[in-house]
Amino acid sequence: MTAGPTPGAVDGDAPRRGRDRRAQEVVPPPGRERIAGPAPSVAVVGGGIAGLAAATCLAERGVRVTLYERERQLGGRLAGWPVRLTDGSWVTMSRGFHAFFRQYYNLRGLLRRTDPDLRMLTGLPDYPLRHSRGLYDSFARVPRTPPLSALGFVALSPSFGLRDLARMRPGAALPLLDVRVPEVYERLDGLSARDFLTRIRFPESARHLAFEVFSRSFFADPGELSAAELALMFHIYFLGSAEGLLFDVVREPYPPALWGPLARYLTDHGAQVRTGTPVECVDPVAGGRVRITAGGHLHHHDAAVLALDTAGLRQVVAGSPRLGDGPWRAAIDRLRTAPPFLVSRLWLDRPVAPERPGFLGTSGYGPLDNVSVLERWEGEAARWAAWSGGSVVELHAYAVDPGADRRAVQDRLIAELHRIFPETRDARIVGRCDEWRADCPLFPVGGFGGRPTVRTPDPHIVLAGDLVRTVLPVALMERAATTGFLAANALLQRWGVRGQTLWTVPLKGRSAPLRALARLAGG
Length: 523
Known about the structure:
Layout: E1 24-26, E2 41-45, H1 49-60, E3 64-68, E4 80-84, E5 90-94, E6 100-101, H2 105-111, E7 121-123, E8 129-131, E9 136-137, H3 148-156, H4 162-167, H5 170-173, H6 183-188, H7 193-199, H8 207-214, H9 227-239, E10 247-250, H10 254-268, E11 272-274, E12 279-285, E13 289-294, E14 297-301, E15 303-306, H11 310-318, H12 326-334, E16 341-348, E17 359-363, E18 370-373, H13 379-388, E19 391-397, H14 406-420, E20 429-437, E21 461-463, H15 476-494, E22 502-504, H16 512-521
Helix pairs in contact: 1-15, 2-15, 7-9
């Protein structure tokens, strides 16, 4: 149940709830707890994680927030919508499975606004990875605290053993042991993830681990992705944090579990939530105000948060000739998206084998990157499976060649599913949704310096989203939530109000001797 606002109180500043005692607190500048006097009006453009984080932080502190979202659903890349199957049942389709890692402190803090104990999440017991050559890796028994996590993985993994560790070039690999931002970009942004692993002699047999667990999470080909992003991922999930690689998933579809409650929370705090309302223009005007053109209508605000995906931001900037300055606008225009990805969800008339995991990462199975069996954790899928006697299976393909025959890719995923789960060969497909998207930010080699930061040339207009550059070690959904809070904090600081306290994984490597070696290796 959502609690209403308490006058004079600021929500969301509860201590970080995780196991890593070295997690770092990031305290905002001091200020009042809430707006004093007439409340400023802020437009938040974009209703994904970043926009919702910014809107929440601002509304809690007495700002008059209007959230504009182009789609009819909130959630951005975690949105969901109803579809009807051929058997007449209504189900929810989404952009696909997402992992809520335990080191996503700020995202989890946002979700705690409506569910303090995070009961909407449940942990999966393992994160297995299967290669077509027969290799099978598991993280269930790997210790969570570095360096025991790395040593334990080497001891347990059939893909990466002590001999492989001995063959690696330790000097070249040392930057992984002292990852800090922005230094990691100064060292490694000029290399691709693939070239970096070649440089450090990362074993070929274990390449699927680095690529499937880390690189492919960015929906990008390892040959195109900056090695700095790969190193940052190693730090966040494996070498720098004691939270481990196991993760939580949502017990029910995203709309009822996450975004419906958060929308009600926002309206309880006085915010207006306008879905189905695209923003065409953001125009700074005299007196330090902002004129928004949304759905063909003009609206005036004191400030704005642009929490858009890459294409959306480029489109709004192109349609707003007075926004920013020349160099900033050119940098926005150079931003690119990652290659297309496919989410295929199948409603089958019979169950998969009971021993199948809820989530399985795959490598060597053509374009197939992972398989999820949704009824293992999601209530709606479990209810449908129990009623029908079937299964709900989701297949992902990342970084698909833009020129590929999409129907052929869709059919190939199902053929690979039959290889991995042979019992599905005879299953009839009761319902099928194939969702193609190409809206994730691309972090190419050498691209870090050109990415925008939270602050823009207009002090009353800020940016948020996972495309935004920050000095904190965050990525993916956590980068979206963190930059959303940072954008709100930047505006609140102008009005003398204290913003959101943030938490991150450690800001540097955990071992002082290894940090010293890494510095020597870096020259």
